[in-house]
Amino acid sequence: MIDTHCHLIDPQFTRDFNEVLKRAQRAGVTSIINAGYDVKTSTDAIAMGKQFAWLKPAIGIHPNEAAAELIKEMGSIEALLSHGFICAIGETGLDYYRDFSAREAQKALFHRHIALAKKYHLPLLIHTRRSIDDAIAILKEDNYHCGVFHCYSGTHEQAKRIIAMGYYLGFGGVLTFSKRLQEIFKKVPTDRILLETDAPFLAPEGHRGQRNEPSFIIETLTIAARILDVTPHHLEEIVDHNATTLFSL
Ligand SMILES: [Zn+2]
């Protein structure tokens, strides 16, 4: 089972990092996309990937960070690509919910990430909050069609447009308790679905309010399989195949 979006570089994992990895392995997690959200955490994700080959680094600057300031650091992000085994660009995207930084600055930062993904032929890990339409418009403008809208929570109509552009949809803990999202999930073609935790955030049903961790992806898999009326084993094969294809694992 592949966890396609996780932040093991988050300080919340410092205390019991090795136990978290052990529990993930015991639960059957075989690979984790470990996404940085600034230069430091992106560097940390690479270091973790060198130590543990199954922790696949992704590098980028999250739109919640001060976009106007951090765009200057995109050169450092590009320099990290020389390590050669980066599997995605991100976490990137647009966040109009928390709105920590001006929308124009976020858009400029997103364009820079897309340019890097294009140049190095890597998929994008795209974060959106109340910003899906703008994210779609920017990806169209930049003519790039490879990546995932992670932690998807938009409408069915938006999902159709995203899929038509060649993107995947990532589903995490919210799927286990949001009836609205479950109805949308049912209608998504299975060859476009990825599963993720987004740990340490957004724990699934049964763990809500706790720190999320990769081993909890099994809860999401179980409920997702029930929604689609297939066995967890069958769904795992499908989503792992999708993840392997997108991230060239
Ligand atoms: Zn994330």
What can you see in these coordinates?
The protein is about 45% helix and about 15% strand. With about 250 residues, it is an alpha/beta fold. It has a single domain, classed as Metal-dependent hydrolases (TIM Barrel, Alpha-Beta Barrel), CATH 3.20.20.140. It has an eight-stranded parallel sheet. β6, α7 and β7 form a beta-alpha-beta unit. α2 packs parallel to α4 and α9 crosses α10. It is globular. The mean pLDDT is about 95. Bound molecules: zinc ion. Zinc ion binds next to loops. GO terms for molecular function: DNA nuclease activity; hydrolase activity, acting on ester bonds; metal ion binding.
Give the structure's gist in a few sentences.
By secondary structure, the protein is of the alpha/beta class. Helix content is 44%, strand content 16%. The protein has an 8-stranded parallel beta sheet.
Mean pLDDT value: 96
Bound molecules: zinc ion
Give the spatial strand order of the biggest sheet.
Answer: 1-2-3-4-5-6-7-8
Strand content: 15-25%
What are the key terms here?
249 residues; alpha/beta; TIM Barrel; 8-stranded parallel β-sheet; 8 strands
Detail the topology: elements first, then pairings.
Blueprint: E1 2-6, H1 17-27, E2 31-35, H2 39-51, E3 55-59, H3 67-70, H4 74-80, E4 88-95, H5 103-120, E5 124-129, H6 132-141, E6 147-149, H7 156-164, E7 168-171, H8 179-187, E8 193-195, H9 217-228, H10 232-247
Parallel strand pairs: 1-2, 2-3, 3-4, 4-5, 5-6, 6-7, 7-8
Helix pairs in contact: 2-4, 9-10
Zinc ion is lined by residues 5, 7, 35, 91, 198.
